[in-house]
Amino acid sequence: MSRNETLNSLLVYGLPTIILLGSIIWLGKKNIIDLVSIENKKVKIKDVLISICITLLIFLNPFLSQFSIMSEEARNSFIGTLVPGDFYVFLTMVIVAPVFEELLFRGVIFRGLKENYPSFWAFTISALFFGLLHTNIITSIILALFWSWLYYNTKNISVCIISHATCNLIGFVLRVYIQKGNDINIFYPIEEHLYLISIGLTFMAGLLFFIMFKRLKYHQMEEKIIDAI
Question: Taking Cα atoms as reference points, which of 160, 172, 93, 162 lies closest to residue 127?
Fold first, then answer.
């Protein structure tokens, strides 16, 4: 990468990274964001892995990806004009963005709404806000609903951050793949079986969600029994 590209990358991604991290720290110190109250209880590794799998099954669902404010051709063309994937892009997409967005949308917005309004509105409003800030609106809304549910039931913001980061990592890899001139037409045969693949991924996501639901309920019962002793 040339010196100009490095400087451009630093300005486009490095500077916002510093600003976002600085904003979180400043808002926390000013008590505008109550970082102390954002819960981060211990979670079992199996639950973390299941949450990651569910996230990827939703994110990679080809049917949901059709509902985007940008066409696939326009999106790929746009990616080609962006700064090449490097350390600053990786840092912003895979680390800073997930941390900032989860603290904001789950730790602040969802939690704040949940404390003052019925659960339905807390889930719905926070998910809509999150979805409208992303190109794949439907996918983002469903992910936001899942991550809000995840945070609500695990009381652990880190699980949401890890799942979100994994999702963004796939996006980063795809971005690098396209920018290197690789032809994504090799994935087009998937379109011939789009609905069948989508149904399969949805079924697997639903099954894993059911398993996780039962696991978390069991963990919650265990905690109640321990607290009662």
Answer: 160
pLDDT tens for each residue of 107-149: 888 988 888 889 999 999 999 989 888 888 899 999 999 999 9
Burial class (CB in 10 A: 0-12, 13-18, 19+), 2: exposed
Q: Are 145 and 33 in contact (CB under 8 A)?
A: no
Q: Which two tokens stand for residue 63?
A: 């049917």
Any alpha helices (H) in the chain, and if so which ranges?
3-9, 15-29, 45-59, 72-81, 87-90, 97-101, 111-116, 119-132, 137-154, 157-179, 189-192, 194-228
In terms of Cβ atoms closer than 10 Å to its own Cβ (0-12, 13-18, 19+), residue 62 is middle
Percent of the chain scoring above 90 in pLDDT: 38
CA–chain centroid gap for 116, Å, is 24
Quick one: 170 exposed, middle or buried, by C-beta within 10 A (0-12, 13-18, 19+)? middle
Tokens for 33?
Answer: 């964001």
Handedness of CA 144, 150, 153, 157 (dihedral sign): negative
If DSSP states are collapsed to H, E and C, what string results for 215-228? HHHHHHHHHHHHHH
Q: Please choose, from the candidates 216, 102, 114, the residue with its C-alpha nearest in 3D space to the C-alpha of residue 157.
A: 102
Looking at residue 16, the DSSP 8-state letter turns out to be: H
Report the amino acid identity of residue 80. G
Say what the pTM is: 0.80
The Cα 29–Cα 47 span in angstroms is: 32
